[in-house]
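Work Package 3 (structural annotation) set out to generate three-dimensional models for the target panel prioritized at the project kickoff. During this period the team completed the workflow that converts sequence records into discrete structure tokens, so that structures can be stored uniformly alongside our sequence database. As a representative example, we reproduce one entry of 443 residues exactly as it appears in the project archive.
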Amino acid sequence: MHVAMIGTGYVGLVSAACFSEFGVNVVCVDKVQEKIDGLKAGKIPIFEPGLEDLVRHNVAAGRLSFTTDIGEAVPQADIVMLAVGTPSRRGDGHADLSFVYAAAEEIADAMNGYSVVVTKSTVPVGTGDEIARIIRARRPDAKFDIVSNPEFLREGAAIGDFMRPDRVVVGVESERAKARMAELYRPLFLIETPVVFTGVRTAELIKYAANTFLATKITFINEIADICEEIGADVHDVAKGMGLDGRIGNKFLHPGPGYGGSCFPKDTLAFVRIARESGAPSYIVEAVVEINEKRKVRMAHKIVEACGGTVDGKRITVLGVAFKPNTDDVRDSASLTIIPALQESGAAIHAYDPEAMDEAKQLLPGVEWCANAYAAMEGADVLVILTEWNEFRALDLARVKQLLASPVIVDLRNIYEPDAMAAAGFHYVSVGRATSEPVAADA
């Protein structure tokens, strides 16, 4: 089987590499010559654990290749997948589909024989219908079917998610297209992966419904954390008590500075727009979007409070600027709100992230970027943990205390225990738990 993958961003490149690992011949298409040249030279433009080795292996095996010529890739493809960007449109929050529709026109011009055109990108309900209209308008003679096959890949764990998914969703309207998609996913059928075959519009909605529900769980536990701080409860015990209920589950019940990344922020905004345009507004998701933005500002205030009410003239160490660990993605990360807010209040920021600093440097001017976590701490008035990278989970606390000008830690990911931090001599502030004060050495 031959697949043409249009777009070599996060979704396109990961999906292409994984399909080729299944034995499928995949040609990746991207308009950016520099990116294609880099991929041909083995340079991976994103950080994703295991992706570089997977790409290298399948290129060497002859199953994965790269080109800027869509006319080279599409005619020989049994399946053409659209994996181009759908960023939030400025002004209204709707998904910007200009790249999708432009690609659809180029696909139409290059088609030769029957094709299955698949949207892998996250697109609003009805996009498949519009892609079909575009192709028919340019090629009335074309034989094709439109399929929606949304991705459910977590950054930092994408290869495992693709190879061993919870489910595969395929929106399809014809038996011919269904058979071709079943053949593509045959390796997952063999390991009894649940495959949901449904209509195109339903599949488009499933993606948004899933992401907005997960964003809602995150936002809910963050509000519970605020309540815990006011009444003296422990948010982790509350989350555990909730999560043990099989109807709720324990995933995405981890308090923090708010969700970010490439999916949840834009998908919740798009879902709000979709719901309103359909005449059935989702007031829950509208509230989630508003609360999440306020959450990031609230976390900046928490840091200021931990510093005695002002950060003017103070040096603050920030560990982690990516929206989550195991990625270099800083899109809509809490760091993009928290760090500028602290700078505006007069703080000097020294920061370190294992992977995301190159991306963040373009978005966070005025930050002193450091070579490692300990270099960032030297002389700081407060240490802020913003991303839960593994290397931050076992810091040498004696060394940390020696490096800091003041033994103050604000842990917005709750990766340490309050009692242990108090015993180590820190004023320790976390999320949804009581603040711990240093224990006297002779206590």
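The radius of gyration is 24 Å.
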